[in-house]
Amino acid sequence: FGIEEGTLVVVAENGDVAAQRNLGLQLLEDSEDKNDHIRGVFWLEKAAKGGSKSAQEELARYRRGGRDAIN
């Protein structure tokens, strides 16, 4: 996503919906760690609740098909 994860976390924590979505996807796509997947879903849910249609779609795909269903 072109942003270091630590920076992305700070931006996401400050309420940026796009950063929340991107962080969620990064955590789901780039890790095999279950805790990262839990964090990824957390951030996708936060972005979806914040109005991100793409986060809503990604979250629905994840819930239907797991990590492999994420774009």
Write the layout of secondary structure elements.
Blueprint lengths: L4 H9 L3 H13 L4 H16 L3 H13 L6
Helix pairs in contact: 1-2, 2-3, 3-4
The computed structural class is mainly alpha
Number of helices, counting only DSSP H or I runs of 4 residues or more: 4
| Portion in beta strands | under 5%
Global outline:
globular
Order of helices and strands: HHHH
Stretches where pLDDT is under 50 for at least 5 consecutive residues are none
Task: Report the count of strand segments.
Answer: 0
The percent range for helix content is over 70%
| Cα radius of gyration in angstroms | 11 Å
Average pLDDT: 88
Main beta sheet: strand number and arrangement? none
- Rounded to the nearest angstrom, the distance between the terminal CA atoms is 13 Å
Descriptive notes:
This protein has 71 residues and is mostly helical. It is 72% helix and 0% strand. The chain is built from four helices and no strands. It has helices at residues 5-13, 17-29, 34-49, 53-65. 30% of the residues are buried. The mean pLDDT is 88.
Report a brief summary of the structure.
This protein has helices at 5-13, 17-29, 34-49, 53-65. With 71 residues, it is mainly alpha-helical.
Question: Which descriptors would you attach to this protein?
Answer:
72% helix, 4 helices, 71 residues, mainly alpha, globular
